[in-house]
TrEMBL record:
InterPro entries: DSBA-like_thioredoxin_dom, Thioredoxin-like_sf. Transmembrane segments: none annotated. Residues 214-262 are annotated as: Disordered. This is DsbA family oxidoreductase. Residues 234-250 have a biased composition (Low complexity). Residues 3-207 form the DSBA-like thioredoxin domain.
Amino acid sequence: MRIDIWSDVVCPFCWIGKRHLERALEEFRAEHPDAEVEILWRAFQLDPNAAAESSETVPEMIARKYSIPFEAAVESQEQIAAQFEAVGLEFNWRDAKAGNTFDAHRLAAMASDRDLDDEADEALKKAYFTDGRLVSDHAVLREVGESIGLPGDEVAAMLASDEYSLDVRHDMTIAQGLGISGVPFFVFDGKFAVNGAQPVAVFRQALDTAWVESQKEDAEDGGDARSREAGVENDAAGDATAPGAAGNPDCSDGSCSVQQQI
């Protein structure tokens, strides 16, 4: 089974949703110890046009972006910090520094080539949310890369070039083709989608649904999973609309149905 996850480094619900998925996976693997689950991280930028660095605080940026009072923006960050604490994370929103995340995604793509996907995701999100680091700063990204075992000089050389830019844009093109307008967005086996930081039970339902379906297909095609692995890319080239995407009515109550196929 493969899970494609669209995520942005500065999206708080992406980290919360990841923790919920991890808990669901623990339960799933306890029942299916022989199941192989591959997780593929994909890039998504909430604000592709963001400046490399901003003088605004996060509450100021949110107040401006969503046209809400500054006090309401502060309250929203306090609420998110509480949600972080509930899943064992720390959000120091007063120290958070807004900036463009394109180069952070390039670093993540480089890490993926070295099988360090999860390590990169954790380190980048910790740098932004917990440590208050500017994740568009190449010096910061080099330190993050080194912290997960990437050679610092190779990271610096990559950041000074356009390397992995096409990888990042490819992920965002697929997201656009699927109608994904927000993250986190999870696609299970190229067929079943969960949008947002849903409760653990929703992720468990998605895992179980995808697993049952994959077992049926394996019995029918002799275990050839290549069509499922290519499903996301194929859907992006077509007219598919994922549950939870913009304009799709399947998430009207904030809880997506994982039965609908994409």
